[in-house]
Amino acid sequence: MNDHELEKHLRQTLRRCDAAEGFADGVLKRIAVEGREPAPRVPFWRWRSPVLRWAAIPALAAMIAGGVGYRIYERREQQEEAMIAKQQVMLALRITGNKLRLVKQKVKEAEGTKTENKL
Amino acid sequence: MKRIGILLIAVMGIVAGAAAQDVKMPVDLERLAAKASETTEVTLNGHMLQVAAKFMNDEGDAEARELVKKLKGIYVRSFQFDKIGEYSSADVDSIRTQLRSPLWEKVVGVHSKKDGENAEIYFKSDSGDQIAGLVIIAADPKELTIVHIDGPLNPSDLDKLGGDFGVPRIETPARPRQAKAGAQ
After folding, report:
1. Cα separation, A86 vs A80, whole angstroms
2. What is the distance of C-alpha A119 from the center of its chain?
3. pLDDT in tens, chain B (184 residues)
4. Domain that holds residue B114
C-alpha cells in the first residue's frame, strides 16, 4: 500500500457520518438512569422494620464486646509473654552471676596457691 | 576492570558480614540435652529483652532493667549430668572456634586439674571502654554451662553481675526499734 492509497483508505474510514437513529435518545435515557443520586443510607434506628432495628442493637453490642474482649486477651497474652521473658532474664543473669563468681573464686584460689608456693 | 571492582565489593561485603556475625550456640549442644539430667536453655533476643525490661518494675529490678535495656541478646545453655564423661571437649570446640575471631579476646582461663573444673571468659572488644559482648564457658565433670551476652557492658555492669546482681534479694523486714515503738 503506497502513501496515496493509505490516505484514501483513512479518509474513507474516518469520513463524517450521521449517528444511528435514536442514538441521542438512548444517551439521554442512560444519563437519566445512571445520573440519578443513590438512595441515602438510613441509620439502623430509622429502619422501617422493627425486627431489623432491634436485631441490630445486640449485634452492635456483640461487636463492641468482641473488640474489647480481644484487646483484653491480647494485653493478657503480652503480659504473660513479658513475665516469662522477665523470668528468663533473671534466670540468665543469675547463672551468669554464679559463673562469674565461680571464676573469680578460682582465680583467687590460684593466686593464693602461687603466693604460698613463693613463700 | 569493572568486574574486578564488583568482585572486590562482594568480597568486602562477605568479610564484613562474617565479622559482624555473632557467636551462635552450636546445634550439637542440643544433643546434650538428651543425656543431661537437667537442662536450662535461655534464648532472648533484643525484642524479648525490651519486652521483659518493660515489666521489670519490682523493687530491686532497676539495675537489671538498665542493663537489659541496652542488650541485644542473652543466650544460656546449661546442662547437668548424673555421670562423668557425658560430654566431651569437642562439644564446646565449635563455640571456641567462633571465639577465635580478632573481635574476641580470652580474658580469663581457669583450669583445675584437681577437681576438673574449667572456666573461660571471653570479651568482645569495642571502641572505648565498653565491652560489646561476653561469653562464659564453665565446665566441670558433671556440668557444662555456656553463657553469651550480646550487647554493650561496662565494667560496673560486670561488677554487678559478679556481685549479687540477678540474684533476688531476700531481705528480712527491719524490726521497729524499741525506743521508737515506745515513743509512739
Report:
1. 10
2. 75
3. 556 555 555 444 444 444 444 777 776 777 888 889 999 999 999 999 998 988 888 777 888 888 899 999 999 999 999 999 888 888 888 889 889 888 899 988 988 887 888 899 999 987 776 789 999 999 999 999 999 999 998 878 877 776 644 444 333 333 333 333 333 2
4. 2-44+72-161
- Give the span between the Cα atoms of B145 and A102, in whole angstroms: 12
Q: Which of A86, A94, A110 sits opposite B55 (nearest CB)?
A: A86
Q: Which residue of A has its CA nearest to B148?
A: A96
Give the amino acid at A75. Answer: R
Going by C-alpha positions, the residue among B182, B176, B177, B123 that lies closest to residue B153 is B123
B142: its cell numbers: 558433671
Beta strands in B61-154 (DSSP E): 73-80, 104-111, 118-125, 131-140, 143-153
Q: Is residue B39 part of a domain?
A: yes
What is the strand order of the sheet B143-153 is part of? Answer: B38-45, B73-80, B143-153, B131-140, B118-125, B104-111
Cα–Cα distance for residue pair B33/B146, rounded to 1 Å: 13
Domain for residue B80, yes or no?
Answer: yes
Instruction: Determine the Cα–Cα distance for residues B171 and B98; give it in Å rounded to an integer.
Output: 42
B134 in a structural domain: yes
The number of angstroms, rounded, from the C-alpha of A42 to the middle of its chain's C-alpha atoms is: 29
In the block, residue with C-alpha cell 583450669: B111
The total domain count for chain B is 1
Looking at chain B from residue 27 to 56, which residues have their Cβ under 8 Å from any Cβ of chain A? 40, 42, 44, 48-49, 51-52, 54-56
B66 within a domain of the structure (yes/no): no
Phi, psi of B111 (to 5 degrees): -125, 115
